[in-house]
């Protein structure tokens, strides 16, 4: 008995299905990671604005303690960091193909460590110094909550966990919001300006819980970081820069005297 052979399908139909599949893939990845965070952040901002307490008097605590017992808190922190990296693994897996690893495709490798380090530190200074000034200004204008970068008790493991948390944040944001999203949107034939704006707006959206002022600042950061990636196709310097920014914020908050923090509007 002869096996039935399906007739060849038009190239445009095949291309349409491929684009639709990529679009669904993007929504799934974002729904499991930063897109979900953006939606929760928007609802959180609505929550903040509908309270009797003004936005400027509210507090957002990053890296909170998860249990009053130190050993359980440590376990929860490690689990949170580990599972937080699963979307990064998923994005890299989906970007991989038979001819090239995803880490090579988006420049998350060690082919030029000194250059990546230098560029990363430079980007951290470019974003971090004005960003601190922006925070002081938007706090004065009542457009941001008081951000507490670390809520951990002074356990022996607090600083290492904060450093790992900074690295986790850098990996998920720069790999997913920049490397993965840019590559997939380019696969869908989006224009460069559209890709740049989409990535930057996503970064701002998942920071809405901090208030509109800081969300706008993160959009600017997204424009700079995504613009760098579009030009050089390397995400590693962005990971270095983001890790450096968060380490300074998280560990600095833990170690700086309270008087210095109060001067910056952090209570």
User: Element order, helices and strands?
Assistant: HHEHHHHEHHHHH
Question: Order of strands across the biggest sheet?
Answer: 1-2
Strand element count: 2
Give the class from helix and strand content and strand pairing: mainly alpha
What percentage of the residues does DSSP assign to strands (E)? under 5%
Unreliable residue stretches: none
Summarize the biggest pleated sheet: 2 strands, parallel
Q: What count of domains describes the coordinates?
A: 1
Helix content: 55-70%
Evaluate the radius of gyration: 21 Å
- Give the CA-CA distance, first to last residue: 80 Å
Shape: globular
What average pLDDT do the residues reach?
A: 92
Tally of DSSP helical segments? 11
Q: Could you describe the 3D structure shown?
A:
It is a single chain. This protein has 267 residues and is mainly α. The protein contains eleven helices and two strands. The protein has a two-stranded parallel ribbon with strand order 1-2. The termini are far apart. The model has no long low-confidence stretch (mean pLDDT 92).
Care to give the gist of this entry?
Helix content is 69%, strand content 2%. With 267 residues, it is mainly alpha-helical.
């Amino acid at each position: 008995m002869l096996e039935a052979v399906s007739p060849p399908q038009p190239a445009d139909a095949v291309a349409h299905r491929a684009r639709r599949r990529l679009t669904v893939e993007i929504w799934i990845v974002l729904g499991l990671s930063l897109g979900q965070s953006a939606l929760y952040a928007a609802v959180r901002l609505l929550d903040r604005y509908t309270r009797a307490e003004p936005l400027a008097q509210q507090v957002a605590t990053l890296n909170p303690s998860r249990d009053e017992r130190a050993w359980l808190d440590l376990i929860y922190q490690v689990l949170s960091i580990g599972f937080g990296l699963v979307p990064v693994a998923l994005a890299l897996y989906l970007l991989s193909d038979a001819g090239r690893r995803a880490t090579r495709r988006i420049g998350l490798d060690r082919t030029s460590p000194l250059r990546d380090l230098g560029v990363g530190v430079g980007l951290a200074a470019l974003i971090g110094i004005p960003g601190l000034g922006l925070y002081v200004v938007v706090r004065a204008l009542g457009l941001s909550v008081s951000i507490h970068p670390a809520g951990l008790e002074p356990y022996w493991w607090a600083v290492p966990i904060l450093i790992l948390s900074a690295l986790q944040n850098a990996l998920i944001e720069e790999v997913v919001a920049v490397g993965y999203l840019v590559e997939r949107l380019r696969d869908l034939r989006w224009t460069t300006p559209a890709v740049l704006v989409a990535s930057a707006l996503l970064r701002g959206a998942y920071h809405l819980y901090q208030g509109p002022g800081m969300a706008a600042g993160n959009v600017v950061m997204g424009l700079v970081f995504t613009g760098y990636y579009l030009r050089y196709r390397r995400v590693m310097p962005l990971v270095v820069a983001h890790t450096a920014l968060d380490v300074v914020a998280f560990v600095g908050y833990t170690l700086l005297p309270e008087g210095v923090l109060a001067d910056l509007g952090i209570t």
